[in-house]
Amino acid sequence: MKILCLIASLAFLTSANAQAPYAGMQTRSIKALSEQQIADLGAGRGMSLALAAELNGYPGPLHVLELADKLELSAEQRARMQRLFDSMKADAMPLGTKLIDQEADLDGQFASRTVTPESLKAATAAIAATQGILRETHLKYHLSTGSILTPAQMKKYAALRGYGSGNHKHRHH
């Protein structure tokens, strides 16, 4: 009988933990975003939005700048890469701020119990559009980065980032 009680207790505790994966998140300022996500969006950071590019041989300007010495970038390449990074950040930061505001609005509608099917549809459509534009923004700068690097630098970048030997196909424009 004791074994059955122990098993029942463990099963209850396991199911209780499984039912509370969001415990603690209810205190977030914007429920759908962590403080780190809010900081990243506000700072124009990529948040893995450009993985389709990065993992298919299209490096991003920030990571290239971080590896500039190991990639032996020329002064011209560094300058061009810095301009790309600065432009990307200038484009991404306002979009990140807009997305934060849109998420805050949606959160506020739920918190105040004023959300309606119509306002929900409008809010989520606006969020989706901003997310799409933000992702496209990060991806387009990955697309531009490859044209600044030599094939040897592209291969070395892939190896330095841990993507294997760097023998996958690189597309240049």
Written overview of the protein:
This protein has 173 residues and is mainly α. It has one domain (34-160): Four Helix Bundle (Hemerythrin (Met), subunit A), CATH 1.20.120. The protein has helices at residues 2-18, 35-43, 51-54, 61-66, 68-71, 75-111, 117-145, 151-160. Helix 2 packs across helix 6 (75-111) and helix 6 (75-111) packs antiparallel against helix 7 (117-145). It is extended and about 60 Å long. It starts with a helix and ends in a 13-residue tail after the last helix.
Write the layout of secondary structure elements.
Blueprint: H1 2-18, H2 35-43, H3 51-54, H4 61-66, H5 68-71, H6 75-111, H7 117-145, H8 151-160
Summarize the structure.
This protein is mostly helical and 173 residues long.
Quick one: biggest sheet? Answer: none
CATH topology: Four Helix Bundle (Hemerythrin (Met), subunit A)
Order of helices and strands: HHHHHHHH
Strand content: under 5%
Number of domains: 1
Helix content: 55-70%
